[in-house]
Structure formats: structure tokens, C-alpha cells
Amino acid sequence: MIQANGYYRKKMAAAILRFEDSRVTGPDSLRVSRLPAADKGGKWEICGICDGIEPTVFNRLKALLDAGRREEAWEGCLQYVLDNTAAVRSWLGSDAYPGVEFILRDHFFNSGSRNTGKILQRALNIHGAGLVVDGIPGKQTRQMLQTVLAQTGESEFLSTLNERRKSFYHSCKQFPVFGKGWLNRSNEAYRFAQSLI
Length: 197
Prior knowledge:
Layout: H1 6-20, E1 33-34, E2 44-46, E3 49-50, H2 55-66, H3 70-84, H4 87-92, H5 98-111, H6 113-126, H7 139-152, H8 154-171, H9 175-196
Antiparallel strand pairs: 1-2, 2-3
Helix pairs in contact: 1-3, 1-5, 2-3, 5-6, 5-8, 5-9, 6-8, 7-8, 8-9
């Protein structure tokens, strides 16, 4: 098992950025791209960091790219992903489950805190947790996460989490437009998460 230290968290963040823009593999390929018309994040993005949601961050990163400071922009993107998804680390309470941490961070970045909390609670309920699915991973959810992971092991719970994630995507109104990409992302994220175990 890999401990999710700073080095591996940066690898997690880099994978999330790649899922947001498959043409970006590092500082040299970092770019500003136009969002699809149906996307509610604004008009432009840098690996999922959108001008309509995080204009200050987007503008700072774009200014770095425009100035040719690509390494600094890349590090800024990595740090933004880690900061934006930091709550996941508190839900887990330890570094012992990097695969689960990654899946939750990726979904958090892609779909927000509440939706990530819900897929987590639904996955835990499949393993008998009996939680109210409110999307808020409070004390009971966090305790049940530790209990279920200890009972099932990370690999089994990771599979359940991935299935709940796919079910969430299928339930979204925009699934007909974005569904194929979401499911591909889910599968890629699952493979990456398995490589961390």
C-alpha cells in the first residue's frame, strides 16, 4: 500500500488535471480551452478551473501562461486541485487509503462536495452503514468509513465507490450530453486509484 504523502498527492492532482483536459500532460501542454456551450462553468477553462466559477484563480493562471511562466502555472493548478479537494483528507482521517482518497478527490473536483458526500454515503450503505444520504460526511459517516474500510479492505470498497459514482452520473440531467465522457473518466480514475493500492 502506498501512503498518500505529498509526492503521491501531486500525482493525484496531475491525474485529475489530465482527466479535465486529456491533452494536458504537464506544464508544456497546459492551455486555456473553450468550454462546451452546455457547460455551466463559464466560457473558458484551464483543466477544469473555469472563468465562471473561479474567475480570480483562472485569471491568475492565465496571466502566468500568457507571461510564459508555465511551470508556475502548472504548480498553481496542482495546488488548486489539492486545496479544492482537501476536505476529502479529513473524511478519511489517515493516509492509509490512497485509492479511495483519489476517487473521492476526483469526484469532488468534478462534481462538488455534496455530490461526493452522497456517493460516499451510498457506497457505505451498500456495506450496511445505514446512513442518511445527505451529502454531508459528518462524524457518523467518517466513523463508518473507517469501519467499512477495515472490514472490506480498500480494493472492495473502491469498487463499490466506483459503481456509486457511475450511478450518480447516470442520474444527472446532462448525462445525454456529457455521460460518455463522465463514464470514461470514472473508469480511468478507478484504474489510477487501483494503481495506488
